[in-house]
Automatic annotation (TrEMBL):
<feature type="domain" description="Squalene cyclase N-terminal">
    <location>
        <begin position="19"/>
        <end position="212"/>
    </location>
</feature>
<dbReference type="GO" id="GO:0016104">
    <property type="term" value="P:triterpenoid biosynthetic process"/>
</dbReference>
<comment type="similarity">
    <text>Belongs to the terpene cyclase/mutase family.</text>
</comment>
<dbReference type="InterPro" id="IPR008930">
    <property type="entry name" value="Terpenoid_cyclase/PrenylTrfase"/>
</dbReference>
<dbReference type="InterPro" id="IPR032697">
    <property type="entry name" value="SQ_cyclase_N"/>
</dbReference>
<dbReference type="GO" id="GO:0016866">
    <property type="term" value="F:intramolecular transferase activity"/>
</dbReference>
<comment type="pathway">
    <text>Secondary metabolite biosynthesis; hopanoid biosynthesis.</text>
</comment>
<dbReference type="InterPro" id="IPR018333">
    <property type="entry name" value="Squalene_cyclase"/>
</dbReference>
<dbReference type="Pfam" id="PF13249">
    <property type="entry name" value="SQHop_cyclase_N"/>
</dbReference>
<dbReference type="GO" id="GO:0005811">
    <property type="term" value="C:lipid droplet"/>
</dbReference>
<protein>
    <submittedName>
        <fullName>Squalene-hopene cyclase-like protein</fullName>
    </submittedName>
</protein>
């Protein structure tokens, strides 16, 4: 058992380290990280925008590769063997970067892990959304969050304005992009068809009817303008939406 006399120097050392990292204005600034998502999405955005910063992309690729597990997966803090969505995002980003190939040994391991856990269809909805934006996963026949929700009055039990500012900032671009079934591709976009489920056939007529209804122009134009207004209100001087990296990932697409 550690005695108090042994613990105190450790505590004092940690306090010293924290004080050393404090900025002159009193703030503490640290790099934002959320598993491999931050680096992966940054690589994808840079390639989607065709932004030429190879030094940064190489560094991000190196960081992603350094966190890959021996079984080919990427982990979040609470995982044991690996996290499917995190692995798919990292795998996709590496292929986007152009500095990794599907035939590489580590990429084959990642592919096996993804397929063993059900492929792209078993990923989190936010991962599917990112993939759909880049033409790597099919948009659903009926988007689960119809655009007209932006018009719902606050008295409704399921109103856009009952969500927190954080959720609304994420939701506004999602509503626009999902409604438009937006897709962008360029020379960097990889092929993930080997991870896709079989295409569904014989889509029911009622789905097509609902999709047509929700896409009516008189609903769409005003709803899009309202969603865009929500997004623009939260953009700071640095161009980031509500200071959140995850918001920026969606803001660049609409």
């Amino acid at each position: 058992m550690i005695s108090p006399t042994e613990i105190d120097p450790i505590i004092q050392g940690l306090i010293h380290d924290i004080k050393e990292k404090q900025s002159e204005d009193g703030a503490f600034r640290y790099c934002f990280e959320s598993g491999p998502m931050t680096d992966a999405n940054m690589i994808i955005i840079l390639r989607v925008l065709d932004y030429n910063d190879e030094d940064l992309i190489k560094k991000l690729v190196h960081r992603l590769l350094s966190t890959q597990q021996s079984n080919g997966a990427w982990k979040l803090y609470d995982d044991t063997t690996g996290h499917l969505s995190a692995t798919v995002e990292a795998y996709t980003a590496l292929l986007f970067s152009g500095y990794a190939n599907r035939s590489d040994g580590n990429m084959k391991k990642a592919e096996s892990f993804i397929l063993d856990h059900g492929g792209l269809k078993n990923t989190h909805v936010s991962t599917k959304f990112m993939l759909a934006l880049n033409g790597l996963y099919p948009w659903p026949n009926i988007f689960p969050f119809p655009l007209f929700i932006i018009h719902s009055p606050s008295i409704f039990p399921f109103s856009f304005y009952k969500f927190s500012t954080y959720v609304r900032a994420h939701f506004a671009p999602v509503l626009i992009l999902g409604h438009k079934r937006f897709i962008t591709k360029n020379r960097w976009t990889p092929d993930l068809s080997h991870l896709l489920p079989r295409k569904r056939k014989n889509v029911k007529k009622w789905r097509k009817l609902l999709s047509t209804l929700f896409s009516k122009k008189f609903f769409a134009k005003s709803a899009c303008r309202k969603a865009e207004s929500q997004m623009l209100k939260g953009v700071g001087d640095d161009g980031i939406l509500f200071t959140q990296t995850s918001h920026l990932n969606k803001l660049v697409y609409p």
